[in-house]
Amino acid sequence: MPESDSSRRVLQVGPLKPSLAETLRTSYDAQVLPDGPERPTFLAEHGDTIAAVVTSGRTGVDAGLMSALPNLGAVVNFGVGYDTTDIEAAATRNVVVSNTPDVLSDCVADTAVGLLIDAMRQFSAADRYVRAGRWVADGNYPLTHKVSGSRVGIIGLGRIGQAIATRLVGFGCPISYHNRREVADSPYTYVESAVELARQVDVLIVAAAGGSGTRHLVDRDVLDAIGPDGYLVNIARGSVVDEDALVEALTEGKLAGAGLDVFTDEPKVPEALLSMDNVVLLPHVGSGTIETRAAMEALTLANLDKFLESGELVTPVPMPASATRS
Ligand code: 8YV
User: Fold this and answer.
1) 61: CA distance to ligand 1 center in Å?
2) 108 alpha carbon to ligand 1 midpoint, in Å?
3) Whose CA is closest to 300, among 285, 281, 284, 313?
4) Ligand 1 surroundings by CB, under 6 angstroms
5) Of all protein residues, whose CA lies closest to atom 11 belonging to ligand 1?
6) Closest ligand 1 atom number to CA of residue 58
7) Spatial separation of the C-alpha atoms in residues 261 and 112, rounded to whole Å
8) CA 71 vs CA 38, 278, 308: distances in Å
9) CA distance 107 to 185
10) For residue 166, how far is its CA from the centre of ligand 1 (angstroms)?
């Protein structure tokens, strides 16, 4: 870690993993952006001393906050998804942005497969059945659906999408995918549109990045195309799925079930889903293991260190070409 310089401070924006927040405070003399009415005063007093922000995908840095930090050089994001940071505004201001790719792909892919199995086999619901004494009272649990060999479609064949595919090949699942563009040398079948992909598969898994480009990519038409025998799994961002349409489809039996780790307005989950045994609900825990969160923390600090030393990042995110950069 470089020598601390009072004109090049680090700012924590939003809650972070406690050990990361503690390291930022003790080793980087980082400040924490206040949330309440003290924020404008804090920014007026300290805004021009901030060289780097450390945040997470749950909070991010919007254009308004960026303009209150005129000497900001980097947004260091804990997490692979950075849709809460305004990348166009960052590019315009020559602010570089990093995320934590690769180190979480295994755990998020494990979560996707876990959700798929749980939604189709209803293990969580069957567990509740045992605990409620219903095995004794009501007899055997109803039959569910076979996972191995089911046709799986993946929306977004990036690092996480590919890690999901690799796992499901082991289950004998034929894999097809939809992506912004076809992935060169991929062994999986490319499908031109999300709706066409949904039509062809038994399970649709959402692994696309969030943000305006993918908002409601899984809309009513895509959900209709999955159909009453099909399942949806989302480990990406709630924003990629039209949640009202999803709730409606599940309520009306137009979808067999769903496994969801992400929601539109976390931590709020639509009330209607809470009583559905064909829906598995997780509190955004995709990357949430001790091992992976430690690796994400280390990569976050490596990005911060490199930026403070050289102005560069270890894992920069691609910046949009459209923004004007000097
Ligand atoms: C984390 C995530 O929950 O990496 C991401 O984009 O959504 C998760 O790994 C989140 O970033 C931690 O705040």
Assistant:
1) 15
2) 10
3) 313
4) 56-58, 78-81, 104, 284, 286-287
5) 79
6) 13
7) 8
8) 21, 50, 13
9) 25
10) 22
Going edge to edge, which strands form the sheet with 231-234? 189-190, 175-178, 152-155, 203-206, 231-234, 257-260, 279-281
pLDDT in tens, 49-75: 999 999 999 999 999 999 999 999 999
Q: Give the number of other Cβ atoms within 10 Å of residue 165's Cβ.
A: 23
Q: Which of 258, 254, 267 is nearest to 221 (CA)?
A: 254
Q: Which of 58, 78, 98 to mutate to test the pocket of ligand 1 (most atoms within 8 A of CB)?
A: 58
List pLDDT tens digits, range 4-51: 567 789 999 999 999 999 999 999 999 999 999 999 999 999 999 999
Instruction: From the CA of 82, give the closest atom in ligand 1.
Output: 6
Q: Which of 188, 199, 206 is nearest to 259 (CA)?
A: 206
Determine the 3-state secondary structure of 320 from DSSP. Answer: coil
Both structure tokens of 146 = 């076979």
Residue with tokens 């940071």: 85
The DSSP element (H or E) to which 135 belongs, if any, is: helix 134-138
Entry pTM? 0.95
Atom of ligand 1 nearest to the CA of 16: 13
Cis bond before residue 267 (omega within 30° of 0): yes
**CA atoms 243, 249, 253, 256: torsion sign:** negative
CB 238, CB 267: distance < 8 Å: no
Residues carrying an active site annotation? 237, 266, 284
Beta bridge partners, 52, equal 10, 74
Does the structure show a pLDDT above 90 at 156?
Answer: yes
Per-position b or e across 282-312, b if 16+ CB within 10 A of its CB: bebebbeeeebbebbbebbbbbbbbbbeeee
Q: At 221, give phi and psi (nearest 5°).
A: -65, -40
Amino acid occupying residue 324: T
- Rounded to the nearest angstrom, the distance between the alpha carbon of 111 and the centre of ligand 1 is 13
Write out the two tokens for 26: 């003790």
